[in-house]
Structure formats: structure tokens, C-alpha cells
Amino acid sequence: QLQLVESGGGSVQPGGSLRLSCAASGFSLENYAIGWFRQAPGKEREGVSCIDSGGGTTNYIDSVKGRFTISRDNALNTATLEMNALKSEDTAVYYCAVRRHLYGRCTRAGDFTTWGQGTQVTVSS
């Protein structure tokens, strides 16, 4: 079975950092695009960042550019989201998701077929 297991969420003060991980099991991440999405209470789910199946194209929403970095390690079958200079506005449940054979633009939640369980990120003083 295709599964994604997220970890790394938690509580941090503004300006702090967290590293979210997404471990794949039951399949290889090779040829899968990976996206990170978040949903805050009362708000629509939004795409945060993604990396395409080829690993050559990344996308970030404007609010996280320069602060977050997405990466993949096909050998370890994991994806990560490095989150720096965190703000209270980043507080949300973060989800990783994958889609096979998605190249280039990869920012739409509807494009992804397998989702992780979500991990809570809380940024507060």
C-alpha cells in the first residue's frame, strides 16, 4: 500500500525553525512529484511548496519564499521541508502529498493522489 508518514511538526517560537519529513513506504518516490500543503483553522488548504517528479522544478508560495526549502532524497525515499524564520501565520496542519509523473508546475492540491496524515506546526511566543 502506498503510504506517506509525516514527522517533524511541533511548537516553535517566532523566528525558529522546523524540519518536516515525509517518508514513503510501499513505493519508491522516484518519478513522483512531492507537495507540501497546509491548512489553518477556518482557512482553505493552500499549497506551500512542491518539487516535481524530475526534481528539477520547485515552487513556493510567495509567503514562504526565502524561508522554506523543499528537497527530496530518492535514495532514502523521503522528502523534507526546511522551515526557517517561522511566523505565527505559518501555524497550520502541514500535509505532504505525492503524484506520479507530474512534471513542471505542481502547486495544485487536486493534482496529488496520495496524502500523509498531517503534522501540526504551531508558531507562538
Mean pLDDT: 95
Low-confidence stretches: none
What is the chain-wise order of helices and strands? Answer: EEEEEEEEEEE
Overall SS class:
mainly beta
| Coarse morphology | globular
Proportion of helical residues: under 10%
| Major β-sheet annotation | 7 strands, mixed
- Ends apart, CA distance between termini: 40 Å
Strand content: over 45%
Our Rg estimate from Cα atoms comes to 13 Å
Kindly state the number of beta strands.
11
Number of helices: 0
Describe the structure.
The protein has 125 residues and is an all-beta fold. The protein is 0% helix and 49% strand. The chain has no helices and 11 strands. The strands form 2 sheets. Strands 2, 4, 5, 6, 9, 10 and 11 form a 7-stranded mixed sheet that branches. β4 and β5 form a beta hairpin. The protein is globular, with a radius of gyration of 13 Å.
